[in-house]
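re: the backbone from monday

yeah here it is again, tokenized this time
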């Protein structure tokens, strides 16, 4: 009984630890985006105001940041966990019938 409880607690801790790393990675990415893009905009406006090139890194990094946000907060995680449970259940059914 204690071993099962310990295993569940360790599994929950591992899952929470992974989630914290995902959140930390996203917020780090967002922080650097908010720092670097304004720097690039100022640099662009000071050096070549006639040619606004900072939009390209802003767009590319922004798309990457949006995808990162969807993976961390969006449909990605719930779908993965649901699919894992579904596949595990199918495997249990197969082994019971054999």
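seq for it, each position gets an aa:
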């Amino acid at each position: 009984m204690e071993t099962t409880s310990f295993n569940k607690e360790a599994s929950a801790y591992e899952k929470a630890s992974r989630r914290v790393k995902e959140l930390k990675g996203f917020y780090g990415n967002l922080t650097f985006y908010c720092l670097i893009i304004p720097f690039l905009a100022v640099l662009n406006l000071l050096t070549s105001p006639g040619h606004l090139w900072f939009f390209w890194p802003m767009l590319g990094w922004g798309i990457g940041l949006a995808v990162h946000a969807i993976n961390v907060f969006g449909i990605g995680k719930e779908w993965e966990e649901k699919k894992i449970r579904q596949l595990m259940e199918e495997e249990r059914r197969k082994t019971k019938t054999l």
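The mean pLDDT is 88. The two ends are 29 Å apart (CA to CA).
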